[in-house]
What we know:
Largest sheet: 8 strands, parallel, barrel
CATH superfamily of the largest domain: Glycosidases
Distance between the termini: 116 Å
Structural class: alpha/beta
Number of domains: 4
Low-confidence stretches: 1-32, 36-41, 325-331, 615-619
Strand content: 25-35%
CATH class of the largest domain: Alpha Beta
Radius of gyration: 43 Å
Helix content: 10-25%
Number of strands: 43
Mean pLDDT: 85
Strand order of the largest sheet: 35-36-37-38-39-40-41-42
Oligomer: single chain
Amino acid sequence: MKPPLNLRTLLVVVLVVAGAIAASGAASTDGIGFTVSSRIGGTALTSGMTLTGSVTWTATPSNTITKIDFLIDGTVNWTEHYSPYYFNGDGNQLDTKRLSNGSHTLAVKAYATDGRTATASKSVTIANATTTPLAVTSSVANGATLSGSVMWTASPIGATLSQVNVDFLIDGVLNWTEHASPFQFNGDGHQLDTTTLSNGAHVLSVKTYATDGRTATASSSVTVSNGAVQPYAVMSSVARGATLTGSTVWTASPSGVTISKVDFLVDGTVKSTDSTTPYQYNGDNGRLDTTTLANGSHTLAVKAYGTDGRNATASASVTVSNAAPPQPTSGSIPRFGISSGYRILQRTSADQAFELDQIKAAGGGIVRTCSTPSNQAAVDQFVSAVLARGMQPLLVLWCTTGPISGTTAASFAASQAAKWKGRVRLYEFANEPDLNGWSGTTYANALIPLYDAIKANDPNAIVIAGSLWKGAGGPVQFVTDMYNAGAKGHFDILSLHLYDDPFAAGSWNIWNMAFHMSPSVRSVMDAHGDSAIPIASTETGGPTTTYGETGQATIIGHGFDALSDPRLAFILVYSLMDDVVTAQPGFGLLRPDLTRRPAWTVFHDRATALTASKTGSKA
């Protein structure tokens, strides 16, 4: 039984016509009933026919198909899935100039929906006019000797100028690309400055790219011969081998070129940059405070940057030898000071000096800030500046952090105690751990090895534990859990953040939680045999946004009154500046405009009176 006609015959008509000539004419049939018909200008396409330029190539199947492949020399160059079936998309053409002149085979292969395929092919000859070779010439002659500024252009040949790009290369390295005529190095009207090249042999090349993929290159070997480049140097006012003390003038004197800036480096780290003459460390101040450096050997260097891209450096190995600042009397701790927060470490040198000078003027004896593994450069400057003013630094190790292991805590603490032995005595472990995920138990587990590590490196150091507010069940529960975890014997002072008025009644008042409630933090310590361990307030005060300036001054005054209780080691007012807590301003003894609030005067007057009476606390 014969299959139906529509399954026996699949007709594909391929038409290759130039321009808009209609597709029609005689057909040729293969063994499976597949018919291909092609015409160009009314003439049927036959094997051996010659094609030039762009032609339209289509296929027409007689049955339903899934796709038609268009093949050139056996390789699929296009696949069309929808009628009308054109090579290169609807209405587009075959550009025979993309093929080499000579014999080629054009074929179509149709795929029927029932799985059958049919193919028809013709051998044709491509005979396009020969393309003009692409070339490029350079305005710089081979063997030329160049000096100064030189015009450098390229002239492509064999392609439309609007269809080429030109690269300009020096010694094989691309230095400029020009996309439009005239093709000039460094843009229209600009030139090659040969003084930016070393004297001697160089290769200047131009490479042009045509849109049809062709490239051409021209190279010239040249000799650059400019006059001797003016020497470039910089001198430092600090002599090699000098011994420095106190405040030292440090300037730089570049010569030989226009300068964009000068860096001043201490031990390889840029500490100051000056962009205008005279080039001085720390700007117009022009002085290096050597008390901010450790005694011993240091390298001071200046690095000048020329506008021509060159730079010059001069360095000097020096010895810093400052007398040790007055050290705290063994066993004596000032009873009042300022908790400055982390912002003091982020201030400029001038702003930090202003803050510390104000604390000193107010009568502060202790200045508290954070010390972490990542901020040691800032802490170094802070400690030196505090000691230089006769005050004592209190370092909060790890600052505000979530729980860490005892090993981690102890490792950093050991390095701090060894580093600051004889200069820093007061170390507090973490800031408000009860608000940052710690329990009394986890805190004690880290405190114990930390305490042992500090004492092993500096037996005279004082370890302050706690730094508590009202989190994690309140300070009474937190301290109870610390003792239950074995913290006894591993702190010298217990610290709380005794904000608000110490004389205000109410169970909400942390002063009452510390001393007056039953149980209180004090009673828990006494019950564990630590009646000799004092409590300190490492943050005290009240914001003017809540209490007003008069209320703030009253709170500060009552804080000093509370020092009459020998069980209170010291109070640190939070804070001097008003920008420490962005979310809640008003804690500062100074207003935002840096004028003094009444609380500053209260602090000053009470501190002065206590200092005069030589009241102290022993630990």
